[in-house]
Each structure stands twice: as C-alpha cells, then as structure tokens.
Amino acid sequence: MTRFTVNNQPIEYKLDPATPLLWALRDASNLTGTKYGCGTGHCGACIVDVDGAAVKSCMVTIAAIEGSFVTTIEGLSRERAHPLQLAFIAANVPQCGFCIPGVIMAAAVLLKRDGNPGEDAIKAAITNICRCGVYPRLIDAIQRAGRAARGEETIPAGARPGIDPADAARVVPALTPARD
C-alpha cells in the first residue's frame, strides 16, 4: 500500500504501486479536476503540485511519491477563491477549460517560488499545451494573481460557477386546446 497526503488529507492507496498518480487521483480519490490529456507528459493537463514541484501526474507512479504532499486543483480552493482562479476568471482565460487545471497548478507552483514572475519566467514555467491559444491572457492573469497574492491588487470574485437549480429546469404548463 502506498501512502501520501492529498489536499491535506493522508491517503493510503490499495492500488498497484506502479499506478500513475493521475489515475489514483481521478479514479480512487474522485479528484477529477486533474485531467487526462495525452498520457505522454507533453500537454500538461495533468499537472499537480508534489512537494512544491509542478509534476505531470500521468508520468509518475504512486510508489515514486510515497510520503509526499500532493495538491490538486481541488485543494487549491474548492470555492475558486485562490488569486489564480480569480485572475483567470476575471481575464476570461478559460475557453474550453480542459487545460486550465494543469495550467493553474503549474502557475501556483511558479508563484510559490517567485511571487513576481516576469513574462520570460512564466513562459518557461508554463509549458502546457492549450489548443484555444489563451497564452497572452494567461501571462497577464498570472502576473495579476501575483499582485493579488502580494496584497497589491484585489480581484473581485466572479459569479459562482454552475446554473442556479431554479433556472435549470422549469415546469411548463401543458398546452391545452382552447375550448369553445
């Protein structure tokens, strides 16, 4: 059995030690914010923070991180209140959204290391592939999140994600034929 901490919760996985971290997180822990993209470590959709490093979870086994501390997008802030999440929403960075959890996790590791990264540092740290091409907005959003984390700027919270249940479905009165 493999043990490590995920989002501040100690976990013991009863999986084959050769299981990729990605599948332990998604399948065994139901943390589906970490995405499966290419499975070869190229796209970055599966990046999580492992002991302060941006790690492509499809490329590391659970045995290799025994005793580590793992943070996923869910552990960053379930309420989407982390400065990176707020800055990405405010700058309309997410398009299809598939790559965004991995990008945010790579950016979170960067901001822990360098609270005021320049454009070159961001480009070096964020190697994720985004088919929507959000890169210019991405750089601005990461720099804005850094300013917010340093207390130099406030990013207003956006609307809560999702659809209000009252708006999701409505009962429509049945159409009845007019009677004479």
From TrEMBL:
Alphabetized PANTHER family for the sequence = BLR6218 PROTEIN, OXIDOREDUCTASE WITH IRON-SULFUR SUBUNIT
Q: Which UniProt keywords apply?
A: 2Fe-2S, Iron, Iron-sulfur, Metal-binding, Oxidoreductase
- Entry coiled-coil feature ranges: none
Give any GO molecular function from the UniProt entry.
metal ion binding
Task: Cite the 2Fe-2S ferredoxin-type domain residue spans from the record.
Answer: 1-76
User: What's the name of the protein?
Assistant: (2Fe-2S)-binding protein
Give the source species: Sphingomonas oligophenolica
- InterPro entries this protein is in? 2Fe-2S-bd (IPR002888), 2Fe-2S-bd_dom_sf (IPR036884), 2Fe-2S_ferredoxin-like_sf (IPR036010), 2Fe-2S_ferredoxin-type (IPR001041), 2Fe2S_fd_BS (IPR006058), Beta-grasp_dom_sf (IPR012675), Diverse_Oxidoreductases (IPR051452)
